[in-house]
Design a protein that fits this description.
Layout: H1 2-15, E1 32-33, E2 38-40, E3 46-48, E4 52-53, H2 59-72, E5 76-78, H3 86-98, E6 108-113, H4 121-132, E7 137-142, H5 150-162, E8 166-172, H6 177-184, E9 193-197, H7 205-211, E10 217-221, H8 230-234, H9 237-246, H10 250-261, E11 263-265, H11 272-279, H12 288-295
Parallel strand pairs: 4-5, 5-6, 6-7, 7-8, 8-9, 9-10, 10-11
Antiparallel strand pairs: 1-2, 2-3
């Protein structure tokens, strides 16, 4: 599996060989380790490659889902200030710690700075730390591109890295190479991660190839299509056929496709059984032909408009 992903990284490097690489940029893309279920980011920290997302979950749902996810084996939890459930995630984390299920160091917490906070990023970071009830955040990302002040916000995250408040920093919803480079060329720390809508109908190939030059890994939000759209992907004849061949669900096939394609994957759920199912993807592997079949579903078709 590592060799397959190394080849994929080489292809991405070739695709971007004519692109500008800023001073200090990384020149190798991160490789997923399926034994440890992690990837080493360009910041030097290990990040789980499969996690649970908290988008649209109520406080009670987020607390329970965090606890259930950690009990199941997940070690990555993804939330955001604008979701309104950071404090609930913190409570779910503490429940799992208090019961001896995990230690804080074993859990990778991601949150996001919302655009209205960009002018006072230092305060936004401290507020997220307080709501989560943690001493450091493993990864904070800017939630959306906002050229008028996102550089200022990113520089606040850079200061927080130096202060030990944040370990890694990144971006979300930057869909054009020029927009990504605009921020990269105005800052010092290369983004460890880019979180964009990514799924079999929108595979983010251009951005994934572009960010490889910086050692930046792609993370998929709406990896299963997002609430209201999952059945579209689940019922796709190609995905359904592959699922039947392996005796697994369409959701498990899509998650496995993300991981083998080198995308960190964060499905969301408030259902205990679905959470367990989403994590149960380590005992089967998609063949090269099956990966190619799913790759052929690319339509450059996003389900969201933000």
């Amino acid at each position: 599996m590592k060799n397959t992903l190394k080849i994929a990284c080489l292809v991405l490097s070739l695709l971007t060989s004519g692109a500008y690489v800023g001073a200090g940029a990384q020149e190798s893309c991160p490789v997923f380790d399926f034994e440890s279920k992690t990837v080493t980011l360009n910041s030097g920290y290990e990040m789980p490659i499969l996690g649970l997302g908290m988008f649209s979950l109520s406080n009670s749902e987020a607390e329970n889902s965090t606890y259930w996810a950690l009990s199941t084996g997940f070690r990555l939890i993804d939330t955001a200030r604008i979701y309104g459930n950071e404090a609930a995630v913190g409570r779910g984390l503490r429940r799992a710690i208090d019961e001896g299920i995990v230690t804080r160091e074993e859990v990778f917490i991601t949150t996001k700075m919302w655009t209205s906070d960009f002018d006072d990023g230092d305060a936004a970071i401290d507020a997220s730390l307080s709501r989560l009830g943690v001493d450091y955040i493993d990864l904070m990302i800017l939630h959306h591109s906002q050229p008028r002040n996102d550089v200022k916000a990113y520089q606040a995250m850079e200061r927080a890295v130096a202060a030990g408040k944040l370990r890694s920093i990144g971006l979300s919803n930057y869909y054009e190479p020029e927009d990504f480079d605009r921020l990269v060329n105005a800052t010092s720390i290369r983004p460890a991660l880019l979180q964009n809508e990514t799924h079999p109908y929108h595979q983010s190939g251009e951005m994934k190839a572009h960010i490889a030059q910086y050692g930046t890994v792609l993370e998929s939000w709406f990896p299963l299509g997002g609430r209201g759209n999952t059945r579209i992907l689940f019922n796709d004849p190609v995905i359904a056929s592959v699922a039947q061949a392996h005796g697994v669900s369409s959701a498990q096939v899509i998650i496995r496709w993300h991981l083998q394609a080198g995308n960190i994957c964060i499905p969301g759920s408030s259902n205990k059984e679905h959470i367990a199912e989403d994590y149960d993807v380590w005992d089967f592997e998609l063949s090269k032909d099956e990966m190619a079949q799913i790759a052929s579903l690319e339509r450059d078709d996003r389900f969201a408009d933000y």
